[in-house]
Design goal:
The protein has 16 helices and 33 strands. By secondary structure, the chain is an alpha/beta fold. It has 3 domains: 338 residues, Alpha-Beta Barrel (TIM Barrel), CATH 3.20.20; 220 residues, Rossmann fold, CATH 3.40.50.880; 67 residues, Golgi alpha-mannosidase II (Immunoglobulin-like), CATH 2.60.40.1180.
């Protein structure tokens, strides 16, 4: 399975990476153009440039740039001209963002909007189209312009209480997006363009906000996720943005981390640097090819100005402080750019995957008579499976059922999958007969509507007789689920136990009672009931776990690493998928990338809060540091990252 690592290109056609920052000057935040201070802007840009940041995402604050219909403010335009010239003088670039709109906890309308609908009022759409076209035409030939963004988080601007979920019409949104992207391109502008909506569509969230990524994909040149996760588990947090990048393998477009970051009011500077490091490196390993953190500076000098007066934590998202001094977050970005340079990362790709996590189409399809929890459960379960696969050092692909399953994998993981379509089940059986290993764990879902496994021919598929009773579940009454292995299995010895924390609702905290009927029992639970069964078919096998282990982990705070990684590593071994490089420590994640000239690079990403030493197991070849010295053990600081080359 090919994994996405598509890149934007230079005008000459060379692959490029974007390392930038979202930018408002400390002279005014969103009102910076009223208080434009060219010397301060110059200083801020130089600081960024000195730390490896060569790009900004800049914003045309709409009420100032377009004070009346069919009118652009000439002073604002001239100040932006100067802004562009200062970028060019430093060999920097910027991405103008047009409709702002929403910013940092507040919405701002132009005074002349008069309550008109953003997407469907013809006169208001025409004004937006004119505004985008006129500003693009003015700056399309400026060498400092790297790309264009239509908006900043417009679902919040359109309906802030819902963030657009269930309130925005997808057809109107798509038509509006086509009108605006056409306005950019009608000027002859050749730079890449995207929406700026945050990529919060149903395909990455399970909740439909009208900005359907599949509908918009044909209009844009890159996906731009905005990720600010609140989590209950450290490893899920560190891999949260990476999983979003994996889900955005739609249409083969580049994925640019258009916004991520944190406020210093929420964390220490040391922990802020850890978060930046984890996000930067893990999203690179997940296919991202651009990073634009939020944002360049703090705003203590304008604490009385909205939005900072009522959202004071928004003052301190900067990677420099309010005096322009670098914070540790900026130094972390600098260290990241040095790794990118030393590995020539613009010419790296991810190796093809032979193991795939199957993402049920119930995440994104609006099937009739289903519940919202059916979609959000898919997201939670597949994210937790992704964490476990990374802990097992599997270079796993994320395969959307909606796109059809890839046929070239040796292992397919269906984590706590209540619902797949009937044709997909037929395809999975065919793949197993042809030699693949198909693993599925049982889950009836979190609500009571049609509570049960939507698995046609479950008994014949897995070689069992299910002992379910209609309308009832078989509750897990223990606080722990003990998977006791009855035979050796992929590096897990007979007699070993994996112990899982039990969690879930009164519906989902349930197991599948079965008797083997052709399948062999690989492991039992603490009561002697079948817990893991293997049904050999053709030249492959179908593996059934009778407990919803990924669901239980997803619903448990501070759970990772939990034993699912051991099971996934065993499944991989049974499928002859031993990683090229691995570490027998789930808190050290290993990832690989390959240069177009054949060189292999290996990332070691620690989830330990203390310094640790890892001992890599290398199947073939030798690990050497980027300085050329042979590596036996890998020394990692707290939450540290080390990159090595795999030679031979």
């Amino acid at each position: 399975m090919q994994r996405n690592s598509a890149k934007l290109t230079t005008p000459e056609g060379h692959p490029q990476l974007w390392v930038g920052v979202n930018y408002w000057s400390r002279t005014g935040g969103p009102l910076m153009w009223r208080n434009y201070d060219a010397e301060v802007v110059e200083e801020e840009l130089r600081t960024m440039r000195e730390h490896g940041v060569t790009l900004t995402r800049s914003f045309l604050y709409w009420p100032d740039f377009m004070p009346q219909e069919n009118t652009l403010d000439p002073a604002m335009l001239e100040r932006y001209d100067d802004f562009l010239d200062r970028h060019a003088a430093l060999d920097m670039h910027t991405i103008p963002t047009f409709i702002v709109g929403h910013m940092s906890g507040q919405n701002w309308d132009p005074s002349w909007r008069d309550g008109r609908d953003i997407f469907s009022d013809a006169s208001f759409v025409a004004q937006q189209e004119w505004y985008v076209r006129e500003t693009t035409a003015r700056w399309k030939d400026h060498r400092a312009v790297a790309g264009w963004l239509l908006t900043n988080e417009i679902p919040i601007y359109a309906d802030w209480p819902s963030r657009g979920i269930g309130t925005l019409d997808a057809d109107a949104v798509t038509a509006w997006s086509r009108t605006m992207t056409d306005a950019v391109r009608s000027t002859g502008a050749t730079q890449p363009v995207s929406i700026g909506d945050g990529a919060w569509g149903v395909e990455t969230s399970g909740a439909d906000n009208g900005f359907r990524i599949r509908d918009l994909e044909g209009l844009i040149d890159f996906h731009g996720p905005h990720v600010y996760r609140m989590e209950t588990d450290e490893v899920r947090q560190h891999l949260g943005a990476a999983f979003v990048c994996e889900l955005l393998d739609i249409g083969g477009k580049p994925v640019i981390m258009e916004e991520f970051g944190l406020t210093s009011d929420y964390v220490s500077e040391e922990n802020a640097a850890h978060y930046y490091r984890q996000t930067l490196h893990n999203t690179l390993l997940a296919g991202a090819t651009g990073w634009i953190p939020w944002n360049n500076t703090d705003y203590d000098a304008i604490e009385g100005q909205e939005p900072y007066s009522h959202h004071p934590f928004e003052m301190h998202f900067g990677i420099t402080d309010s005096e322009g001094r670098p914070k540790e977050q900026l130094r972390e970005v600098k260290r990241f750019t040095e790794v990118l340079e030393r590995t020539d990362a613009a010419r790296l790709t991810r190796p093809d995957a032979r193991a795939a996590i199957v993402v049920s189409s119930f995440l994104e399809k609006r099937y009739p008579f289903t519940q919202p929890e059916d979609a959000t459960s898919v997201l939670a379960h597949t994210r937790q499976a992704y964490v476990a696969a990374r802990e097992a050092d599997l270079g796993v692909g994320v395969a959307r059922e909606a796109d059809g399953l890839p046929g070239d994998c040796d292992l397919y993981l269906l984590p706590s999958a209540k619902q797949l379509t009937a044709p997909t089940w037929s395809e999975l059986r065919r793949l197993a007969h042809a030699g693949a290993t198909v693993y599925a764990s049982y889950c009836v879902g979190e609500h009571m509507n049609q509570r049960g496994p939507w698995w046609p021919n479950l008994d014949e598929t897995f070689g069992v007789v299910k002992k379910l009773r209609y309308g009832l579940v078989d509750p897990i009454e223990d606080d722990e689920f003990r998977m006791v292995f009855q035979q050796d299995f992929g590096g897990i010895a007979a007699g070993e136990e994996l112990v899982f924390t039990v969690a879930g609702t009164e519906n989902s905290r349930a197991f599948l009672p079965v008797e083997p009927d052709g399948a062999e029992v690989v492991a039992t639970d603490a009561h002697g009931r079948p817990a893991l069964l293997r049904h050999r078919v053709g030249t492959g096998s179908l593996i059934l776990c009778t407990y919803p282990i990924e669901h239980m982990a997803a619903r448990t705070p501070r759970v990772n690493p939990e034993p699912t990684w051991r099971l996934y590593a065993a499944l991989a071994a049974e499928s002859d998928l031993t990683p090229e490089v691995t570490v027998d420590d789930p808190r050290v994640l290993v990832g690989r990338m390959t240069h177009e000239d054949g060189r292999d690079f290996v990332w070691f990403v620690s989830q330990h809060e203390e310094a640790t030493t890892a001992e890599p197991v290398v199947r073939t070849g030798t690990l050497v540091s980027l300085d050329g010295g042979k590596l036996g053990k890998v020394e990692l600081p707290p939450y540290g990252v080390l990159v090595a080359e795999l030679t031979g």
